[in-house]
Write a structure and sequence with these properties.
- The complex is a heterotrimer of chains A (about 300), B (about 350) and C (about 260).
- Helix content of chain A is about 70%, strand content about 5%.
- Chain A contains 11 helices and 4 strands, in the order H-H-H-H-E-E-E-H-H-H-H-E-H-H-H.
- In chain A, the strands form 2 sheets. Chain A has a two-stranded antiparallel sheet. A two-stranded antiparallel sheet of chain A has the order 2-3.
- In chain A, strand 2 and strand 3 form a beta hairpin.
- In chain A, helix 5 packs across helix 6.
- The longest helix of chain A has about 35 residues.
- Chain A is globular, with a radius of gyration of 19 Å.
- In chain B, strands 1-2 form a two-stranded antiparallel sheet.
- Helix content of chain B is about 75%, strand content about 0%.
- Chain C is built from 10 helices and 10 strands.
- In chain C, strand 7, helix 7 and strand 8 form a beta-alpha-beta unit.
- The chains are: A mainly alpha (about 300), B mainly alpha (about 350), C alpha/beta (about 260).
- At the B-C interface, helix 9, helix 10, helix 11 and helix 17 of B face helix 2, helix 3, helix 4 and helix 5 of C.
């Protein structure tokens, strides 16, 4: 295999991993944009989406493609529930208070996962048509590697239509730009926040399904690392900025794969890569690549 | 001022009672219970250390697991007998400068604290200007980086295999001795001018700086003290358990400490001490939730993970019930005013 | 004492202050007035190092023969040189006691190390005692000695303003910047405040630079007044000169 085709294979892997980070990162960035909260439990919502799909496919008679749509919707509802239970009562509290609640919620979901799904890893039931290797000019690539970016782009188009063209999307952007003013303008904040959590969780579950198809091992703690890395992607792109989250996701995914590909000696440090990027970004440009800085009024 | 003498006397009395209780416990309790008492002491130190930075200084740091890892590995590598090191590092030999080192427990603990504090300064210097949630995620990131590095530095830490056969120096006197020193240190610090400056930073950074408080210097100071005690506690833990590996030092460990601090109350010293003991004992007492118990005639099936579900729910409930009051310190204000 | 030369401060495209030149002489009380949004607080924020100005120089000479260029220094450094301030929208350490608020004001003068504080070495305890007594004295001065153990944010508004001044005085300033000290006060309180400012000025040998909306306060105590409008200096001079200035009358009564 030539070095160029090898490179192309890494590129494809990087893009597909990046797509998944991007999908999860959108949920972080949308919630942060409105509530200024790092939704620590978002990675665990992602995990829940994968498990719901798993049980839907294996234990119901619903066809798999329908499960792939229903499970994210159910995950979205769990997202709404999470907000209502753990965050809504704290909306007027200091940011740290609500952050602690988010950490608690994250551990709660993880451990509920252990309780209900068991700590033993499970194998994700990947549908046959998503799981075969094709050879393109001597490069063998799993077909899912191509499907992931395509589905991601379709979801992003849908999201961008929703954000820019619908009234709810407009309200969402208004709320994220200026919470106080928007709340005075008669926007139903509770409804918008619920929708935000629904959409973020829906996209995370979509990412989760594709993650399961790509890396078919399910564990209750599987959401922790992808969650943290996707949050970092959101910060890299400029938190609160949806396009930024997508760009950050792709950069981080590509960077991670390329690090392992080009410097195999550093393979063991793969999980540290994102954190190093995070710290560099926070120090050099805390507002992220596409964010705008804000100064505190004195 | 008479007020202060009375609290000092009360503290002394409590200390004497505690020492007697520990003495009796050490004499009459079985190994399992003594181990829990040791763990409680270590968690007292950890809780206070986190409270210093998260509660009193108002800097939300989630890096404790990382500092504990540094302390634990320092103590393990410094106290382990030379022959034991050879047995541990069968995969890849240990770096030569550590191969023939074996020091006593006290110098090892001090080294654990100092190295951890040094690292705290190194990490704190760049990230402490970040605000609340950004700081939280950056410190969490550093803790993860430390864990990943320890997993990969085979010839220094023995990598993912971990270290076994660490001498068990930790006993009730060590774990609670350090806990008492931490209580004294944090109390004394907080009563003094520096501690009040820390709290000023928590209350309002802009105003604190306008009053001439060098934010950077004070934040780094608080962070260094917190990492010192986290490192020492990590060392005590390593020596108590006898076995460590990098995966012990995940964010779950930081979560346990955060739970103690939130239950005991941010910026509350007595509360943290009580909560550290209660949480540690409960963690053990509720173990039945996770494990099956055979009562002879009937077997109650445990559900793994249930224990942490309970603790997560407790944490969320406490946060929601206390809401805005979570960060504040209201201790004894009314009473001292009434006496004037 | 303080000389501001050609000070300009822009936030993105917004000019908050443009080409301001002003001087505060030792021992003076100088007023800075202007309609809302004139950029007065911005001037204070630049002097105290909260913002770095786009252009201009600020020279501070706390004593004869000593001169410091303030632009580029951090707020805590500037406070140590001897400039302290109060805030327009009161920024006390709200969960701490009244006494602690003032006590913390002395912290920047502490010479002992953190270790001697933890070990309570004699050197530290002597300093602490001194700071403590000074704090009590200042509390007495502002009439809050009976509230020393109350939480700062439990005080009524007027007391909070006075507490902020006591806290600033605890830093041993040479130049005191007061940002709308009489805001929200009734006429009686305002009168007391005017007397209080003059009193502390004498006792602590202060120079005072103040922003104020209550004209009777400014006109009564200021020796010199600067008038800002939309970030530009439109008048300066003695209270009577300023009062009769056409531009000032227009700025206050006119369309702007």
């Amino acid at each position: 295999m030539g070095s160029i085709s090898l490179f192309l294979q890494h590129l494809a892997n990087g893009i597909s991993l990046g797509s998944l980070y991007a999908l999860i990162a959108i949920g972080y960035t949308m919630v942060y944009g409105i509530l200024r909260l790092i939704n620590f439990a978002h990675g665990d919502i992602f995990m829940l989406g994968v498990y719901l799909t798993y049980f839907g496919v294996l234990y119901t008679s619903i066809p798999w493609w329908l499960v792939f749509a229903i499970a994210p919707a159910v995950t979205g509802l769990v997202g709404i529930l999470l907000e209502a239970v753990a965050y809504k009562p704290l909306r007027e509290s200091p940011r740290i208070t609500i952050l602690i609640s988010a950490i608690g919620a994250s551990f709660l979901l993880q451990n509920l996962g252990i309780v209900f799904f068991g700590g033993r890893p499970r194998a994700f039931p990947v549908p046959r048509i998503l799981n075969h290797v094709v050879k393109v000019r001597g490069v063998s690539i799993n077909v899912i590697t191509f499907i992931i970016p395509v589905v991601t782009i379709l979801l992003l188009i849908g999201l961008s239509y929703f954000i820019t063209k619908t009234k709810t999307g407009l309200a969402m952007r208004a709320l994220s730009r200026d919470y106080e003013t928007a709340s005075l303008m008669g926007i139903d904040i509770n409804r918008i926040i619920s929708i935000t959590f629904f959409m973020g969780s829906f996209l995370a579950a979509m990412g989760g399904i594709m993650w399961g198809a790509r890396y078919p091992q399910l564990m209750p703690l599987m959401g922790v690392m992808p969650g943290l890395k996707s949050f970092i992607a959101a910060v890299v792109g400029g938190i609160g900025n949806i396009a930024g989250a997508v760009v950050g996701g792709f950069l981080l995914g590509l960077g991670e794969i390329m690090l392992v590909a080009l410097l195999p000696r550093l393979t063991g440090y793969r999980d540290a890569f994102a954190f190093v990027v995070l710290i560099i970004i926070l120090l050099v440009k805390p507002s992220g690549l596409m964010g705008s800085g804000q100064t505190e009024k004195v | 001022m008479r007020d202060k003498q009375r609290t000092d006397l009360a503290a002394l009395l409590a200390l004497v009672c505690a020492v007697v209780a520990l003495f009796l416990a050490n004499k009459y309790l079985d190994d399992y219970k003594i181990r829990i008492i040791n763990l409680s002491g270590i968690y007292v130190t950890l809780g206070l250390s986190m409270n210093l930075i998260n509660g009193f200084t108002g800097l939300f740091s989630l890096g404790h697991a990382g500092f504990m890892a540094v302390g634990a590995y320092t103590v393990a590598l410094l106290t382990m007998p030379i022959s034991m090191k050879e047995m541990n590092f069968f995969f890849q030999p240990i770096v030569p400068w550590l191969a023939n080192v074996e020091v006593g427990f006290l110098p090892a603990l001090l080294a654990a604290g100092l190295i951890s504090a040094f690292l705290g300064v190194l990490i704190g210097a760049p990230v402490l200007r970040l605000r609340d949630d950004y700081l939280a995620i950056a410190t969490l990131g550093f803790a993860e980086i430390i864990r990943v590095v320890f997993t990969n530095t085979q010839s220094l830490t023995n990598g993912a295999l971990g270290l076994k056969g660490i001498p068990n120096y930790t006993n009730i006197w060590w774990s609670w001795g350090v806990a008492f020193i931490t209580v004294w240190f944090v109390t004394s610090l907080i009563r003094g001018s520096y501690g009040k400056a820390f709290m000023a930073i928590r209350e309002d950074e802009v105003a604190a700086q306008a009053m001439g408080i060098n934010l950077f210097k004070h934040k780094v100071m608080s962070f260094a003290f917190a990492s010192f005690f986290a490192g020492v506690a990590g060392g005590l833990l390593a020596s108590l358990l006898g076995t460590i590996d990098p995966n012990m030092f995940r964010i779950t460990l930081t979560f346990n400490i955060l739970l103690i601090v939130v239950l005991g109350g941010l910026s509350r010293i007595t509360g943290t001490v009580i909560s550290a003991v209660v949480v540690t004992v409960m963690m053990e007492a509720l173990r039945f939730l996770d494990e099956s118990i055979n009562l002879g005639f009937i077997e109650i099936k445990g559900v793994p993970g249930m224990r942490m579900v309970v603790f997560s729910i407790i944490l969320i409930l406490v946060v929601i019930v206390r809401k805005a009051g979570l960060m504040t310190r209201l201790k004894g204000r009314e009473s001292s005013y009434a006496e004037n | 004492m303080l000389r501001i030369e050609n000070l300009t401060m822009q936030f993105g495209g917004v000019v908050a202050c443009s080409g301001l030149t002003a001087e505060v002489k030792p021992g003076q009380i100088v007023g800075l007035i202007g309609p809302n949004g004139a950029g007065k607080t911005t001037v204070f924020n630049v002097i105290t190092g909260v913002y770095k100005p786009t252009a201009g120089r600020i020279t501070f000479s706390p004593r004869e023969g000593e001169q410091y260029q303030l632009v580029g220094l951090s707020p805590d450094h500037i406070a140590k040189l001897g400039i302290c301030r109060t805030f327009q929208n009161i920024r006390l350490f709200s969960e701490l006691s009244v006494l602690d608020n003032v006590f913390i004001g002395s912290h920047l003068r502490l010479r002992s190390s953190v270790f001697s504080s933890v070990l309570r070495l004699p050197r530290y305890t002597a300093e602490e005692k001194e700071h403590y007594e000074k704090s009590l004295y200042l509390l007495e001065k502002i009439g809050l000695q009976d509230f020393r153990d109350e939480k700062a944010n439990s005080l009524p508004y007027g007391m909070q303003r006075r507490l902020e001044m006591a806290r600033a005085l605890a830093t041993n300033p040479k130049l005191l910047l007061l940002d709308e000290p009489a805001a929200g006060m009734n006429p009686q309180e305002t009168l007391e405040l005017t007397e209080f400012i003059q009193e502390i000025k004498e006792e602590f040998e202060l120079t005072v630079f103040l922003i104020e909306h209550h004209m009777e306060v400014v006109m009564e105590i200021s020796e010199k007044i600067y008038v800002l409008d939309h970030g530009v200096l439109i008048a300066e001079g003695s209270p009577s000169e300023v009062q009769s200035n056409d531009k000032v009358i227009e700025a206050y009564l006119g369309v702007g």
